[in-house]
Design goal:
Length: 117
């Protein structure tokens, strides 16, 4: 991943921490795939996919989290929960990061972006 992608993940983490989310893990990977951020807030454990696109992109960043990607995130989350049992309710969120001229302009956070497969 490029450095702007890593910066986007760090900015999303910072953004969520300001909203009282707690970081549990980041870049958690399994044989199925990777989860960018694992956060918790209230009764939820949130598996967060960070997607970055240019502000002039033809599609919203979340549109790039297709069914195949969702299944990979879902399988990785299931494995994480098997190895790290919790009473928290799992939720899949997408953080859309919009940039322009290699600078992050703003973040749009989508809770419950997709369901567990």
């Amino acid at each position: 991943m490029n450095s702007l992608g890593k910066l986007a993940e760090m900015k999303v983490c910072e953004y969520l921490r300001k909203k009282r989310y707690k970081l549990v893990d980041f870049n958690y990977s399994s044989r199925f795939g990777e989860i960018d951020l694992i956060m918790k807030k209230g009764k939820y454990i949130c598996f967060v996919e960070v997607k970055m696109r240019n502000v002039n992109s033809i599609a919203e960043p979340a549109e790039f989290v297709d069914e195949v990607k969702q299944k990979k995130i879902s399988a990785t989350a299931s494995l994480y929960l098997k190895n790290n049992p919790t009473s928290l309710q799992p939720r899949f969120d997408v953080a859309e990061v919009f940039c322009e001229n290699n600078q992050i302009k703003y973040i749009k956070y989508l809770e419950n972006a997709f369901e567990l497969y």
